Amino acid sequence: MKTLLLTAVAAASFVPAAMAQDQAGSPSRIEPYVGVMGGVHNFDSETGKEGIPPVGYKGRMVEGVAGVNYNVAGPLVVGVEGSASKGVSGDIDWEYGAAGRVGVKAGKDSLIFGKVGYKWVNFDALGPDSPDFHGTTYGAGVELSAADMGGSAASSNIRFRVQADTLGNFRSIRPMAGVVAKF
User: Fold this and answer.
1) The dihedral of CA 171, 177, 178, 179: what is its sign?
2) Number of helices and strands (H, E) in the chain?
3) How is domain 30-182 classified at the CATH fold level?
4) CB atoms within 10 A of CB 72
5) How far apart are CA 60 and CA 118, in angstroms?
6) The pTM is what?
7) Which whole-number Å values give the CA distances from 111 to 64, 104, 114, in the listed order?
């Protein structure tokens, strides 16, 4: 299941890139992007409907994201994003998921966004053949462009991203920070 999901996300990220090349010369309404982030994921010690084990698991994560934004009109942006995370310390082995995003452009090229999706989590602490736990994920964040942080360029393809997500019925907190590059 993990391989199928990651393959689908990777394949989907190449289609918009090809479409964006057809629009060379006009302002692109389609913006594919990739990014790398790091952070922590802390789970509550209470059992919820999501079936997360009631132990209070936590771990440090490294995450790769790939997605596509579509500039609807004016500052409004909608998009989809896939993610895969690897636990580097703590109780979490892997996380992977997909989400829809809605955002508003701010400044020259920055973005304030909210997202809703679905995430699967595998806990290293439960052993090598443990099941994946899953649930709806919610989050919000901001991507700050170098052009808006004092740069002299009119726009920038590199953004510094900070976000916070939760899984299920607010049973966890997952702050992340990293770099996203649009192309």
Assistant:
1) positive
2) 1, 8
3) Porin (2.40.160)
4) 12
5) 20
6) 0.80
7) 19, 6, 10
Q: How far apart are CA 143 and CA 180, in angstroms?
A: 8
- Closest by CA to 16, choosing from 78, 65, 67, 64, is 67
Helix (H, G, I), strand (E, B) or coil at 16: helix
Q: Where are the domains of the chain?
A: 30-182
Task: Report d(CA 71, CA 106) in Å as an integer.
Answer: 13
Question: What distance in Å separates the CA atoms of residue 152 and residue 146, rounded to the nearest whole number?
Answer: 9
What is the residue-level pLDDT of the chain in tens, covering all 183 positions?
444 344 444 444 444 443 444 444 345 689 999 999 999 999 887 655 556 666 788 999 999 999 999 999 889 999 999 999 999 999 999 999 999 999 999 988 899 999 999 999 998 888 878 888 888 999 999 999 988 887 666 677 899 999 999 987 788 899 999 999 998
Residue 129: CB partners within 8 Å, gap ≥ 6?
A: none
> End-to-end distance of the chain based on CA atoms, in angstroms?
29
DSSP string, 117-174: EEEEEEEGGG-TTPPPEEEEEEEEEEEEEGGGTT-SSS--SEEEEEEEEEETTT-EEE
